[in-house]
Design a protein that fits this description.
The complex is a heterodimer of chains A (about 1150) and B (about 200). Chain A has 47 helices and 19 strands. In chain A, a hairpin with a 2-residue loop joins β18 and β19. The radius of gyration of chain A is 39 Å and the shape is globular. Chain B is α+β, with helices and mostly antiparallel strands and about 200 residues long. The chains are: A alpha+beta (about 1150), B alpha+beta (about 200). At the A-B interface, α1, α2, α4, α6 and α8 of A face β2, α1, β3, α2 and α3 of B.
Chain lengths: ~1150, ~200
Amino acid sequence: MSDVVEKTLTALPSLLSLDSQPGSAKLSSTAKLGNLIRGITELTSKHEEEKLIQHELASIKEQVSSPNTTMRQMRELMVRAVYCEMLGYEASFSYIHAIKLAQQGNVLEKRVGYLAVSLFLNESHELLLLLVNTVLKDLQSTNLIEVCMALTVVCQIFPKDMIPVILPIVEEKLNHPKEIIRRKAVLALHKFYLIAPNQVQHIHNKFRKALCDKDPGVMTASLHIYLQLIQENAEAYKDLTASFVTILKQVVGGKLPMDFNYHSVPAPWLQIQLLRILSLLGKNDQRTSEVMYEVLDESLRRAEMNHNITYAILYECVKCVYTIHPKSELLEKAAKCIGNFVLSPKINLKYLGLKALTYVVQQDPKLALQHQMTIIECLDHSDVIIKRETLELLFRITNAQNVTVIVEKMLDFLRLSKDDHMTIDIVGKVAELAEKYPFKHYSTMNAVFSLGGDMMQPEIPNGFLKLLSEGFDSEEEDRKLRLFAVSSYISLLQGEPSKLPQRFLQVICWVLGEYSFLKEDLEPSVVLGLLTKLLDMKSSSSETKSWVLVAMTKLCWSEAAVSEAQQVAETYSSSFDTTLRQRAQELQHLSRDSQLHSRVLPPGGRLEPDEVVDSSLSFLDGFVSEALSAGAAPYKPLHQRQEELSRSKVLSLEPYGLSLPISTSSCSITDRQSPTLLSTSSGLSGDGTDFSHRGSSTTLRLDGVKRVWGREGYLAQKKPVEEVAQVEVPSPLRSPSQQGDANSCRSKTPTPTANPECDQEKQQLASSLFGGLSSQSSVCLISGAAKMVNIQRFRRKAKGQRSSSTTNEQRANPTVSSASAVDNLLCNNLLEADTEPINSSAKQTFQHPHSLSVANGACDAEAILTDGDPKERNQPLSSEDFVEADDSPPREDQERSKDSCLTPHLPAELSGFSHSEIIPLCSSQSLDLSACHVQTDNSVVLVVFITNTSEDANLQIQVFCVCESPVEEVRGRSVSVRQYSLTVKMPLVHFELVGMLSYSIPAGMPQAMMQFSYKLPLTSFIRPLTVSTEEYGSMWLAFSHDTKQNLTLIKEEREPLTATLNALNKKLSLHVVEIIGVEGLVACSLLQDQPCLMHCRVHAGRLAVWLRSPVPDLPDCLLYHCQRALQEP
Amino acid sequence: MIKAILIFNNHGKPRLIRFYQYFTEDMQQQIIRETFHLVSKRDDNVCNFLEGGSLIGGSDYKLIYRHYATLYFVFCVDSSESELGILDLIQVSCCSFEVFVETLDKCFENVCELDLIFHMDKVHYILQEVVMGGMVLETNMNEIVAQVEVQNRMEKSEGGLSAAPARAVSAVKNMNLPEIPRNINIGDINIKVPSLSPF
């Protein structure tokens, strides 16, 4: 060590002289820092250092605020400021300059600026808001390094409220061609998830995509997120088990490039992470565990003991094996590994071995027996950490036989311990043991109180007092114990009470106050005298003093005591401490009035345990109703208040005009539901295993452990062998019970993995791992018979419905390839058209043979629908499958406009309603197809005009919109009109209707086909909903799906809210229920029966809207349109 | 998650501190003092793990440290990190720094305290590549050095990320390290998922 110092010192002058060479700005900048550092190293006292740094800071301050300072100099100044801050001197004046540097500098200066900002500021610092714009700009920069830096700073500190501003851009970065950027973006999203999980709820599938990234680095980064997610809710990610196992298999099998090797171990950190994830997934789940047995075995086998890092993997592996559903073969191997750890001469490994043992003994106490010699050695180890860990292990295997020895060892440790943290920990453990095995309880607790001092958790004295007052089984024993406590405490007080910790004194006071009457030869005045001594002690805290006064109050029932008590009360009734004064007053009054005293505190009569506490506070009902009728605000539960508070405090979220139409409430619903499911089930099973362990550990006889502690030396190997034999009996007993647990657990929780259907998804996921996702994303738009294409949320479907529909499909038609399966599922969600030939005069001719294939396809899709329908009921929405045929009577619609004008006209009965423009869809030589939609009161009618432009020929046409229509004939130069009534099954931002027209000219000739698609927005389905404010209120509470967003207000001088709502009313036909001050209530419904409510509030120049609906996705989709409507001029 | 990285010398003088969880300035200094107090009284032949002090979060937290010559490198982590993994991560960070220092013009035989002080900002950049927001980002030394190198070279040319690894390679080549940074052979990573697990 000393030669290093020497080297450092000799290097110093040369370095400094080197640095002071003129001409190089870079060198001279380090020279200034060098000067500072040299100055500091030369100093001898803290005081001098302080002076020097203050001087330095003053000069930095002067320079940073000077306008002549160049950016380059600024950079150097920042480093110096960082250095000063690191030493603990505040340099807050430089914060703003750091931000400026990040804003204005070139790449290198930016780097220093960002670094300084991330070191100086914290997430809630107000200056950080100034950084948001810079980060935003840099994220969009074309310079990769700038993007990297911005992502790094986002990961380090970013204001929570501003996440929505940059979220879309960070998401975008997940598709960046450079893996380093993707990797950092994943970590940034992880950070967002940690600080604001709600904000990233809608991008969970992007995490999946990151997991499937072709670069292992990105995949590794995404595991951080998954570890977190699975920790919170393992049940929801069971389907990924196979994927994680596959990845681990490949890593262990050495499939990664050599670059990932560390000391010739392939990607060790990745392996560790995966093993942790697997152990979380396999916990209490036999089925999932079975998937991973093989790879765990492989990992255990592959890890050759040559380097620290292999031990790291082994340790995780062992922990995993013991966490998941047990398999005896693996357990055996893992136990052997633990042996290697424990017996290792390397102390770090020994530590981990003990840790592993601690973890394992709960399941398999015989392992501790195997290693008892080592454990004993560790107990006397020179390293406290090892000692502590050993005690922890012993704590786990404590039973009625060995408790005395173990407690003794712990107390020994406490006597030597100087570390607060460990003391608190061990004190807690001793107290717990003392409570569990109550023999010698009091003497142990006395030791605990005097050793633990004031650092122990307050629960310990409280628990102790509770136990004492409630007593054990026999009355007589209680009395004896209390008496024992009183006399021992009296003798303690007669000794040197000033050495006792405050907590202990408080306990003593209480016990004396309550129970000193038990000791008949003890005069209360004697006790009072002792207590008064405590009061006079300088070291007593005021809390202790009030305990003393309370004890006195209980004691002053004899003459002599009263006079002494009154003296004390007098002294303290003018105390500055209000609590003390209060207690003194009580003492004074009660000691004066002996009748009152005996009523309040009956002498010798003990606590009335039967006091009933009315926890519902029903006695306040009258008060509450009175207050309410007097106009008080009703009580709001805490979460509601907080919500409102955060709403009013929240900053305007999109100062940069970014629109975020995406936030899926549907995702949040499934997420909201499943945790409860999970928690109940895991709670049950967890209890079960716990219990069984406890059961088995009490049946074990670990006498040997006790004997080992004997002074005459260790009782070596003979005993243990016997015990092993004994112990082996319970272990098979245990496993069936555990299995039972697992079984019951499984039957209670619907595990997604149980469905064979999920296999499909897993298969797909697995096959796409590292293979890119190109094939999947192109599936979106496919030709089919007829479908509405979900433009925005393909992913949602993919997640929720793919599996079920695919299997259905396969049932229906086993030969269909998987690609077409996905195609067909698209039909599932969307619109189904039942066509009605409107032209009754058309000749109903034969079915054209060429149309059959398509027609079959269409029918197929329909078959699937009916087939799959029962399964999809869990989608609360729209039980009927979309477009139903309008039963409007067939009418004359071949408007043979005599004047060759072939412009399509709406049928008369629809002309009263608002309709969209008639837009041409497609055309061929002789045929034009155009369409529009008409918004009637309770539906949307799609009107398709088929115009035959050719003079001569009659057309035979057939339109497929999910199901074929009968063939009909359109005569030359005429228009055929078809109507389809549309209903919505699932709300989307836009709907796209795809259809196919097959026609033959003339009738009977080979068929030609035409595809067309028609797009219509959600708003066509929105109708105003007229409700009263009261109705609105009750509906609001009933709806579960909601979303919130801030929108721009329409700029108008006087009534921006009214203007905005009117605009919404006009453009989206929302019904304005009421406007109250800065708040507005708006209601609408999706066609007739699916309401959606909107609550608007003007805040900070923005319109904070909150939408609620019983229909998932509807709020999100509607919000998108509101946003659009307000952005349009 | 890594909560903090502290580097201080044998006298408890902080040389580099980086917190990934917010603590007030005073608290930070207190934590440094407490950590130094805990770590410095331990011999070199005891284990490298410590239960977290009372300040930084109690029993769920661990201090994992290494003692190099005059410096202590302490990582404060929660229970979701692997002890031995972090221990080697410290090694990786130090080696990266060493390699990095050697790529600079000045030649030192190994990392000493002085390098650390004089290149405090650069150590931060290296750490930023290793640990990001408390999460381990990169464990490959070559990659770490290459990334920082790329940033440094920006001063001389605005060549951009694509051109830079080659230079970084040439810089680290004489260190007897596997010389190709990873982001060059992204294309031929030969990991393939077997068609289907029979689950």
